[in-house]
Design goal:
- With 196 residues, this protein is an alpha+beta fold.
- The chain folds into 2 domains: 70 residues; 89 residues, Pantoate--beta-alanine Ligase, Chain: A,domain 2 (2-Layer Sandwich).
- The chain is built from 4 helices and 4 strands.
- A 4-stranded antiparallel sheet has the order 1-2-3-4, covered by helices on one side.
- A hairpin with a 2-residue loop joins strand 1 and strand 2.
- Helix 1 packs antiparallel against helix 2.
- The longest helix has 53 residues.
Length: 196
C-alpha cells in the first residue's frame, strides 16, 4: 500500500513538473506573439502556425507521458521479425556474390600461374634445342613437378628431321596424387621448333 502511494506521489510530481514546463513554454510563446505584433500580416500566420504546432506537440507529449510508459519502449516481435527478414533478404545475395567472386579469383589465379609456368617450360625447351647435342634428345616427359602442386606434361613430336612440334600442358594437381589428369589441365601451349 505504501509503495502504491509513493508511485502515485512520484507520478503526480512528474506530471506537475511537465505542466510547469508547458506553462513556461506558453509564456515564451506568448512573448513571441507579442514580439510578432510589429511584423507584416504575411509573417504573423507563419509564426503563429509554428507556435500552434509546437504547443500541440508538447501537449501530445504530456498526454503520452501521462499514460503507462512501459508500452512505449522497446520493439515489438513483429518489428523484430520484419527487420530480420529484411536483413536476410539483403545479406544472402551479398554473401553469394562474395563467394562466387572468391571462387573466380582462385580459378583466375590458378590459370595465370599455369600460363606463366607453361611459358617458362616452353622457353627452357627452346633454349635447350638450340644446341646440336640436345636436338636429337626427346623432350617428352609426363607429370613434371614445376612449382609445388603445379604439374606439367610435355609432348614432343618429330615432324621432320629439321622440325619438331612441342606441346606443354600445365595444371594444378587437385587430388594430390602426383599425376596430371585431363580435367586438371589449366592451359596447353603448342609451338614448333626448327633445327638451327
Amino acid at each position: 500500500m505504501h509503495r502504491k502511494l509513493t508511485d502515485l506521489d512520484t507520478g503526480c510530481w512528474m506530471l506537475d513538473a511537465r505542466r510547469r514546463r508547458l506553462l513556461s513554454h506558453k509564456n515564451r510563446v506568448s512573448s513571441i506573439g507579442n514580439r510578432a505584433s510589429g511584423l507584416t500580416p504575411l509573417e504573423i500566420p507563419k509564426r503563429a502556425s509554428l507556435v500552434r504546432r509546437v504547443e500541440q506537440s508538447l501537449t501530445a507529449r504530456i498526454r503520452i507521458w501521462g499514460k503507462k510508459r512501459r508500452f512505449l519502449t522497446g520493439f515489438t516481435i513483429t518489428e523484430v521479425v520484419v527487420a530480420s527478414a529484411l536483413l536476410i533478404i539483403a545479406v544472402v545475395p551479398i554473401l553469394k556474390a562474395l563467394t562466387s567472386a572468391h571462387v573466380s579469383t582462385a580459378v583466375i589465379e590458378r590459370k595465370t600461374r599455369s600460363f606463366i609456368l607453361a611459358q617458362s617450360k616452353l622457353d627452357e625447351i627452346r633454349a635447350r634445342s638450340i644446341y646440336r647435342e640436345h636436338w636429337w634428345t626427346e623432350f617428352t616427359k609426363p607429370n613434371i613437378s614445376l612449382d609445388g602442386p603445379y604439374l606439367c606434361n610435355v609432348q614432343d613430336t618429330l615432324l621432320s628431321p629439321n622440325l619438331r612440334g612441342i606441346m606443354v600442358s600445365v595444371g594444378y594437381d587437385l587430388n594430390d596424387n602426383g599425376i596430371l589428369a585431363l580435367d586438371e589441365v589449366e592451359i596447353t601451349l603448342a609451338t614448333y621448333i626448327a633445327k638451327r
